[in-house]
Structure formats: structure tokens, C-alpha cells
Amino acid sequence: MSLIFKGYTTHNKNDNNKLLNQINMKVIRYIIFIPIIFVIVALVYTLLPMSLFALMGLSKFWIIVLLIFFGGLAVGIFALLPGGITWLSAKISPNKEFAFYSILTISVLLGISQIYSYWTNPDLTENGFGIFLGIMLTCLTIGFASSLSLAAGIEMFEEKEESLGILLSIGSIIFYIGIFFAFCLLSTKICYINPDKTYTWYSGIWHGIFVIPHWVVSWFSDDIYCKAPYSTIGYSIWWWISFIFIGLGMLGGGNRRREY
């Protein structure tokens, strides 16, 4: 009888130890989840402007090479990054609701803090070009914040998928507006038009390609030109040919995508 009682007590202690270990592991996962997600999101927000400014610091040749061979890859990584963070959070967090509200709170608060830092930076608000940078970084930050928080919600709450999906689509549109502004910014580096220089026909081809991004940036800066003030007749002819060809190509591509 005593052996049976002793075996039952030992078995009971083992069960209690297993339960205690499970509780401890769950508590540890709760504790480490918030700082891990905080560090990841903070790194994304911090590295975003740093990577753009580092890219602007490269030579014209290397910017063109990177855009041609790695531009699509970079945009794809930025677009998939929120989903990767969501997947990681689902693996770390012991509770999906806790994960969602933690990511939502952290991404929104850090996003607001980052945007506030942009618009209180005198280097960005003292001239039109700085305001353009602020708008671009704000769009990218809003896009990341919405993707991080709403993607987590869609992943974890199927009943809210439709409403969250609409909000995520809006955030994605804002994100791609920021990507377009970033391309406009890079175009001013790889295709800068010197107003004091006279350009010939081959420059008209190159300048015509970047008319639209230059036009957008020219709203904020008087130093950016869509067309060279001094040029030859050949320049003007090829500028128009290049501009119309690229414009029609973009419209044609858009129509083909809508047909599919």
C-alpha cells in the first residue's frame, strides 16, 4: 500500500513539475516577445531612411546598376518583410491576440515617433526638397506600420480578414507611393540636368525617360528641371520621342495588366 502511495506521489510531483515548467516557458515567451518585436520593428524604421540616404551617396553608375539588377528584389523584400515579421511573431508569441495587439501597439507608436522625428528635423523642414523627403519617408513608414500591424491581424483573425484587408490595401497604396517618391529621388541623382549646360541629342533620350519623376520633384525644388533650358534642336526632338515612347509604354503595360 505504501509503495502504491509513494508511486502515486512521485507521479503527481512529476506532473506538477511538467505543468510548472510549461507555465514558466509560457511566461518567458510573454516576457521576451515584446522586446524582440520592438527591436525588429525599430531596426526596420531606423534602417529605412539610412539605406535610402546611403543609396543616394553612391555614384551614378552604381545606382543605375543596383536599380536595374536589384531594384525589383529590394521592393519585393520590403513588401515581404512585414509578412516575415508576422510569421516570426506567431512562432514566438504564446497567444495570437497578445501577438496582434503587441505588434499593433509597437508598430503604431514607433511609426508615430519616427514620423514626428522627420517633421521636427530642421534639415527636412527648412526647404522644399526636405519637405519632399519628409513626405516620402512618411509614406514608407505608414506603409510599413499598416503592413506590420494589419498583416498580423489578417494572419490571426479570419473573421476580420475583409475589413483588415481593406485597410491593408490602403496602407499598401501609401507604401508604393513612397516607393515611387524614392525612385523620383534617385532619378535626380542619376539624371541631374545642369541648367547652365547645353545638351545635345543623346542627352534628350536620357532626360526624356525621367520627365515624370523630375516633374514630381520639381514641385518641391527649383533646382530640378524636366527639360534642359539650353539645348540643341536634336535634343528637343529626341526628348519628345523618348518621353512619348516611355509614356505610351507605361500606359500599354497598365492596360495589359488590367486585361489579365
What descriptors fit this protein?
260 residues, two-stranded parallel ribbon, elongated, 84% helix, mainly alpha, 9 helices
Share in β-strands: under 5%
For the sheet with most strands, the description reads: 2 strands, parallel
How large, in whole angstroms, is the Cα Rg?
Answer: 26 Å
Strand order of the largest sheet: 1-2
The residue-averaged pLDDT reads 77
Structural class: mainly alpha
Order of helices and strands: HHHHHHEHHEH
Uncertain spans, ≥5 residues at pLDDT below 50? Answer: 2-8, 253-260
Number of helices: 9
The number of domains is 2
Shape: elongated
Task: Tell me how many strands there are.
Answer: 2
Note the gap between the termini: 78 Å
Helix coverage percent of residues? over 70%
